[in-house]
Amino acid sequence: MNQDYQNEIDSQDEEIEIEAIGIEVDAHPIELYKLFKIANLVSGGGEAKHVIDEGYVAVNGELETRKRRKMYDGDFFEFNQEYYVVVCDAPVTEVETPQEKAEKKLKKEQASRQKKKGAKSNATKAKVSGPKSTGRKAADKQRREQINVLSQSAKAQSSNKNHKGNPSSEKTRDPKSGRNSIDFF
């Protein structure tokens, strides 16, 4: 029995050379299902996740069912009796730990709170100077006032022309249609 155990240890220490297809990536770690898409082993991410979940993939010699397993330079996986290896020249980009994520979230919340406080103080300053409505109704009201002013000035100008005593400026009506005649210059 001791001898069998010794043989197992010796067989584990042996290095096995495997020919693998290299998959070059720009950055690592990269998720396993994304490697399937990059290598065109599947038609989409959903199919890749399904294949991994069903247990058709072995990573570094062990069965893998995690779809988002992080793969680094030199890691290999087996699929459809073919071996694939991850090849990347770039250094490892840091993976955020849950604690780092929580710290970033806290900083963002504090920054947004400060912005809200600044916005509230600006809003109170605006209220002090006088309420301003910036809506559709206010724009319509301003437009109506401008039209009213323009129409009044146009009426005043036309009444001044009529008072000059220019008889040709008065329009004559056509007896048949009742329409005003058109004067060209």
UniProtKB/TrEMBL annotation:
Query: What is the superkingdom listed in this entry's lineage?
Result: Bacteria
Give the residue range of the signal peptide: none
> Where is there biased composition of kind Polar residues?
148-169
GO molecular function annotation: RNA binding
Q: Which residues form a coiled coil?
A: none
- Which Pfam families does the entry mention? S4_2 (PF13275)
**Region Disordered, residue ranges:** 95-185
Which keywords does this Swiss-Prot/TrEMBL entry list?
A: RNA-binding
Protein name, UniProt field: Uncharacterized protein
| Organism of derivation | Vibrio azureus NBRC 104587
